[in-house]
Design goal:
The chain is an alpha/beta fold. The strands form 3 sheets. It has a 9-stranded mixed beta sheet, sandwiched between helices. The longest helix is centred in the middle third of the chain and has 16 residues.
Length: 405
């Protein structure tokens, strides 16, 4: 996202530096290298005009390597993992897995620096137990995350072991030979599926990929911001840690977005006026009605793939949608010839949530929750309609260009 913004002339700001009085233009700022706010500043008074804002999240459920992960069982080296977020665990078995993430290291001059690393090749697998050893597997097998999820990386000779930090150090030096990498101090490394994304279906109807929740919304939001005409002040925020509750400095419950908005408004009164003239669209994938499990949906609220973006509503504010904000979105869809759908969870089922209600309560802005219909949410590989992203892009671009609500 940073590369795409820089290519289009966005200027990077840093939280620890003075911004002064920003002139109209394009800017972005990051926190923790995992959350980003990018925005246009248009001509005119921001306090009386407000901002059109779109929000999404950058993280997805996965398996995260523990601090002391090495274990050898029956000559096989495994790494202990934690489950990040509400992952659907069974699909992680029998996949070609690799590792990627951030490594914090010490240079020879004792400086602490950070670098991204990606093993790229398949380096691990979590094999299933054969059906011959568990005849009731298709009726009753459950996954114990502590016992059943440690991936296998390699086979070792008797008494041999492997230091994971030393492995990371070697990979960093191979991938970044220009850096003065000494000792690896710590890391945030996750496993991921090496299978590439694909357009599938007899007529190319579907997108099959990892982490569609919620990188699809991040991508569409970014492309919409880049295509906006810049005549209206507009902002995109993509927060980390939504899948684990957003309680972090870079999550939606942190003050990242609020601090950026406060710096743009310069004083408390201008901030309150700006929020009153602003609106946020929280974009996070919606549950499409599954043909094999149609009874899990309310009969009148079953979104279909490739039939347009979905307005998500919940009476208990698990989604931030109100009639005021949904009316704005419905009108935008109508003007731009984009169909719109509705999702309400069954009254006898629990409802998930998004950054929408958190952001609305944090900064006091009118908010709407929407998303594209998706199957297999939180699986290692998810499925969406190949035409829905384009329809959402059309509406979000129009929203960024909209003069008033």
């Amino acid at each position: 996202m940073k590369q795409a913004l820089q290519k289009e002339g966005f200027i990077q700001l840093h939280e620890g530096e003075s911004w002064g009085q920003l002139t109209p233009g394009r800017y972005y700022v990051t926190r923790n290298d995992s959350s980003i706010v990018a925005f246009y500043l248009a001509e005119g008074d921001l306090a009386s005009q407000g901002l059109n804002m779109v929000g999404a999240h950058t993280d997805s459920p996965c398996l995260k390597v523990k601090p002391q992960p090495e274990r050898v069982q029956k000559t096989l080296l495994q790494l202990g993992v934690e489950v990040y977020g509400g992952a659907l665990l069974n699909p992680w078995f029998d996949r070609d897995l690799s590792m990627a993430g951030r490594v914090s290291y010490q240079t020879e001059s004792q400086q602490i620096k950070h670098v991204l690393v990606d093993f790229e090749q398949a380096v691990a697998v979590i094999p299933s137990l054969a059906i011959h050893l568990d005849r009731d597997v298709n009726q009753s097998r459950s996954v114990n995350p502590q016992q059943h999820l440690p991936p296998i990386l390699t086979q070792l000779d008797e008494g041999e072991t492997l230091d994971f930090r030393a492995l990371l150090e070697q990979q960093c030096r191979t991938q970044h030979p220009e850096l003065n990498i000494g000792k690896v101090l710590d890391y945030e490394i996750c496993f991921y599926d090496t299978q590439k994304a694909a357009v599938t279906g007899l007529s190319g109807d579907f997108i099959s990929a990892a982490r569609l929740d919620n990188l699809l919304s991040c991508y569409v939001g970014l492309q919409s911001l880049l295509k906006a005409d810049g005549k209206r002040s507009a902002l995109l925020v993509c927060n980390d840690h939504e899948e684990v509750g957003s309680q972090s400095s870079s999550g939606a419950q942190g003050n990242f977005l609020q601090s950026v908005l406060q710096r743009l408004s310069y004083n408390s009164e201008n901030y309150q006026r700006m929020m009153d003239h602003s609106m946020m669209i929280s974009a996070d994938n919606a549950h499409a009605v599954h043909p094999n499990y149609a009874d899990r949906h309310d009969a009148e609220h079953g979104p279909l793939l490739n039939k347009g973006p979905v307005i998500k509503t919940n009476a208990n504010q698990r989604y931030a949608t109100s009639s005021e904000t949904s009316a704005v979105f419905r009108q935008l869809c109508e003007i731009n010839d984009v169909p719109v759908q509705d999702f309400v969870v069954r009254t006898d089922m629990a409802c998930g949530s998004t950054i929408g209600p958190i952001t609305a309560s944090n900064i006091g802005v009118r908010t709407l929750d929407i998303g594209v219909p998706t199957f297999a949410m939180h699986s290692i590989r998810e499925l969406a309609g190949s035409r829905d992203a384009a329809m959402l892009h059309t509406v979000l671009t129009a929203f960024f260009n909209q003069n008033s609500h």
